[in-house]
Request: fold
Amino acid sequence: MKITMPVPTGIILALGMLASLCTTNGFSQEYPSKHIRIVVGSAAGGSTDTLARVLASNLSNALSKQVIVENRTGGSTSIAIQNVVSSVPDGHTLILLVSSSAALSAMGTKLPYDLERDLTFISQLATTPFVLVVNPSVPFYNVAGLVSYARANPGKLTYGSVGIGSIIHLAGELFSEIGNVKLLHVPYKGGSESTLALVGGQIDMNFTTTVEVLPLAKAGKLRILGVTGKSRLESLPSVPTLNESGLAGYDLYAWYGLAAPAGIPAAITARLNAEIVKIANANEFKKLLLGHGLEIRTGTPEEFASLIQFEIKRNSGLIKRSKMRAE
Reply:
């Protein structure tokens, strides 16, 4: 006669939890099972693309799998983001997000994704403040002089950006708001076009990165007046921040960070975060990024998610107050 002994409920639950744990650990240990792609929303050769390729090389060594960079341009990074959010959430598709991605989400434009809902944020990677630069023909050698002139001549001073709603456009609007001035915004198709217009005298001022303007400033083709971040730059110790120059509370910078589709396993998120933090804080990586005007700033997935939330909220308010409209 076959006798069936009842199994206590506690044992069943314990076995279930153990099986779940083993499955999770097994999945995490198998990762990555194929090559990884990092999607970039800008063209090859730019600063974002360069950062992605340096990161890909280091991540490939750390994970012992090929990591490739895939450029998907257009839509102010929205095309790249949409490609990633529609990918399988298995950790094999990542995206190098930039500050313009949050600026775009703040515009109120109808997008095929929700940045906060549809991505898993892994870690912030690097930041860089912008610098306020002017054409040498403009008779200002400090921010105070520029603000004084702008207040006396509303709408006369012009600045360029890579498009309406871009982070550079927001930098100009924040300057106008805090400085109580009115500047004329001139959108261009790209950062290099905007810089050429500044050098050529078609616009008076601009907000851009140090990497792009330092050689031009050293050649006397541009003049640097201020830094948009909270602190002065190591590479430009004599250049004051805008906050120091009378624009109290001005703090705006570009940032870069790694994300993946929403729903990737927590173990994979944790592993990628650990690898990114380790890679980014290695001395060689730090020196390389410093050479491109970037400072390392890593953190937890939660900290990166909080940054995105803060940026969208702040930018949304600025966009509404300035009555900015999408193209």
Q: What stands out?
A: The first strand starts at residue 36 and ends at 40. Residues 131-227 form a domain with the D-Maltodextrin-Binding Protein; domain 2 fold (CATH 3.40.190.10). The two ends are 81 Å apart (CA to CA).
